Amino acid sequence: xxxxxxxxxxxxxxxxxxxxxxxxxxxxxxxxxxxxxxxxxxxxxxxxxxxxxxxxxxxxxxxxxxxxxxxxxxxxxxxxxxxxxxxxxxxxxxxxxxxxxxxxxxxxxxxxxxxxxxxxxxxxxxxxxxxxxxxxxxxxxxxxxxxxxxxxxxxxxxxxxxxxxxxxxxxxxxxxxxxxxxxxxxxxxxxxxxxxxxxxxxxxxxxxxxxxxxxxxxxxxxxxxxxxxxxxxxxxxxxxxxxxxxxxxxxxxxxxxxxxxxxxxxxxx
Length: 269
Ligand SMILES: Cc1ncc(C[n+]2csc(CCOP(=O)(O)OP(=O)(O)O)c2C)c(N)n1
Fold this sequence. Notes:
Distance between the termini: 45 Å
Structural class: alpha/beta
Oligomer: single chain
CATH architecture: 3-Layer(aba) Sandwich
Low-confidence stretches: none
Helix content: 25-40%
Strand order of the largest sheet: 2-1-3-4-6-5-8-7
Bound molecules: thiamine diphosphate
């Protein structure tokens, strides 16, 4: 039952925050995974610190609240210790692309069999709007009152280059799409990465920007790195008119995961 995934904690997200929608999608995804045969007890999630991290309090599943930017080492440790678990790592853009960036590159490089969900609101929201690696140039926040002078990073391109074997993007306002992408990501064997575009209605409300540009990937060859890169580069994360923002699975390939190669339960002789 979906209610079994609820907790008694009062939700302190801003009223109307799309994090509520992502939470809904997550619950639906967990129920789908359970229906398909995964025991609820075998789904574990970790979080970083930030608005996204409050998911720890609001979702009744085995979980671990980690230091800011340091959830990936914990997730990988959990998976290494018990390969039967499905591990979902919930992070923010500041958390992952600023504080914890090196962990992301290495987890993708070694094709660690975990799922990373990035709630990308393009600012450090909990601490009231410092710019992050995905804040656009010109973004005005508490640490860039005259506008961010840096150009943003394209995280999907980075994860593709690092070695991720499942790379997708969803939009927080599309609950069912996010749910489907989470299920696919968790079922993928290897490093799965789902970037969720999450408008921050308090500090960076870019709903109109997204709604004018998003479209669903169709007839896309998920096995081709070159085609994935071309689609990923349709939006270079910079400001500007005319950019299109594809949603869906860009890249998905089969490759032995770190955990298959380093199964700690394998007998040694
Ligand atoms: C090592 C460390 N640095 C800074 C902080 C302060 N801090 C707490 S939450 C936060 C912002 C989180 O932003 P993000 O990861 O983008 O998540 P969001 O709140 O936007 O969901 C910061 C900087 C901290 N807790 N630990």
